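Following up on my earlier thread - several people asked me to post the actual chain instead of describing it. Fair enough. Here it is, all 755 residues.
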Amino acid sequence: FLLCFFFFGLLVVQIHGQHGAYIVWVDASAKPTVFPTHYHWYSSQFAEPAKIIHVYDTVVSGFSALLTPSQAALLQENPAVLAALPDRRRQLHTTRSPQFIGLRTQRGLWSESDYGSDVIVGVFDTGIWPERRSFSDLKLGPVPERWRGTCETGVEFSVTNCNRKIIGARFFSKGHEAASGFGGIIGGINETVEFKSARDADGHGTHTASTAAGRYAFKASLEGYASGVAKGVAPKARLAVYKVCWKGAGCFDSDILAAFDAAVKDGVDVISVSIGGGDGVSSPYYLDPIAIGAYAAVSKGVFVSSSAGNDGPNGMSVTNLAPWLTTVGASTIDRNFPADVVLGDGRKFSGASLYAGKPLDGKMYPLTYPGKSGVLSSSLCMEDSLDENTVRGKIVICDRGSNPRVAKGLVVKKAGGVGMILANGVSNGEGLVGDAHLIPACSVGSREGDQIKSYLSSSSSAATATINFRGTVIGVQPAPVVASFSSRGPNGLNPQILKPDLIAPGVNILAAWTDAIGPTGLDSDNRKTEFNILSGTSMACPHVSGAAALLKSAHPDWSPAAIRSAMMTTASLVDNSLSPMSDEANQKPATPYDYGAGHLNLDLAMDPGLVYDISGDDYVNFLCAIDYSPKTIQVITGSTARCPKIKKNPEELNYPSISVLLSGKEKVSRKSLLRVVTNVGDANSVYRVRVEEPRGVSVSVTPEKLVFSERVRKLGYYVTVSGDGLGDSGAGFGSISWTDGKQHVVRSQILVVAL
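Reply from S.P.:
Thanks for posting it. Predicted structure:
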């Protein structure tokens, strides 16, 4: 018997072909009893021991290994193998914000949760710079007894770098090493710029970790910008660091899945994942290790938040779509870093900048636009694209796109330019982010950029300009608005689930930074700074991770679905001028495709009144409803699935938002859905419904009143949607709100789509 297995293993490894890393999901129950461990089974039957990268035994059962395509195909013929998929590389989705989401010192959720004390937040990112003040353990209690993790040592990272704040640190590099060690085209970890440890050489991980759970740090700023007290959303929460992304090399699925395996085993309460496909395309859940790892984590009570992606304002660009993930888009806050472009004819155009060097002091300089030559690389100020003779001593207009914004300024500087105006294209609209440029530079919106170029064309050689920098301004209106880069719906996999779930601050966020690189991230930037200001849904995601830590601390018995529901049903839809939230890209009113349920509002989320809870069986029924086979579902859940005899609609998942697909084939379409709410407020409560119908659609709710008591904590209601009036728009938005007439308004978005 053993000889047969060994022979099969030899047969597999002798098949020729280019090796690559594969993730193999295995039915754990199929392990022959002759093998003492799953590793022995895998290394005897499926792959050579030296070719195995990771073994997974917590969130999934299986392994990753170096295989040829032929070997992978042969493996999938084995009845014990559920799937074998190529390893893929993913990308990162890259101080006033806690107050802006409704947190107040000495009252509300911060007070009720003791600032997230003893909740453990796992951060999957580029590591951490542990010496920062944001990670001090001063006056923190002992490490929670339930913690089972470790402080893994490595290059410039010892056990003393962990403390009562950073209670664990691990790094995962085998996927990278496998990709580069056997003819991979990606390339491995560059140890001349990276640390083979949990230490952060990139800065992104330090920034996200301190956003979620950084301690109070006084006199914080980026070279004078955003000065004040820096603090994370859950300042007393504990941090567990899982370095899965490496500078210049991305994040491999096999390593991400290994981190999920370790984090759940270690005992984290929250996982923050600011990682995605990077191309605005989402894989089906059974091909997505983030979705698969998160499913097992959520089923064990771990809240998982993920970034929506930075491919906005394009529609259907949102990623991380699994309904058990909380998917977070980005918004602005009421703080800005204004700069003005002043033209020679006296006109002034507002923009944004974090430039902190020697100012231009109002001196006017000649203006030039390399893009007038018609050469795309010159318009984008790409490396070696500028003619020094036409740029030297001038302010240069560069178009946004292709290369990093700060890198354009460096190109201008090398060519002898004295400043840069960074102009958005139509795709970026009017959305602006601040950058810590190496030369005097200002970002302007698409309309302003066109007007400045028009001035240059009409004035020719006489065109001049200067840039004035105005520091930090707070109380900006309107705010929040949906960030132009934030990825949007509709959900490209299953439109029955509205994604993103909600938005949170993600523009110009101040947080801790690494000492390994300057604030621009450019190799030539030798500046050192304790804090940096970044933008992206990567910055929005840890706000929700920290918020989940606070809610978990205040309500230890709440499930991940209940925590998400509390955030979504209390989210805000208006800005600080009490107008409906707008879209930064075009200044028009935003829709639930842009912001999901709305903007995170923790002042209300602590006491939502009612929550929409979801069990593991509910998720399985959803997967059955979208026609996944039992074997495919087992790849995700790790156990054999039994689909109900009567197939449900995917819309019937007990989600806090309600998406209804109506067939356009019939004259009048109609669909009824059940929702169940759990009372987490006063036991004896009565809620009445209020409906905002989407245009051209009729919505009725039965019953219209829900009466809760000590004995009745859960009640259901039916939503019936009918109509044929959506017209060419194809989608309509409305809401259902349950209110107790006191402080609770439990709001669910309704999205109706005509097929």
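The chain has four domains: 20-86, 109-149+156-222+229-333+486-571, 338-469, 610-614+654-754. That should answer part of your original question.
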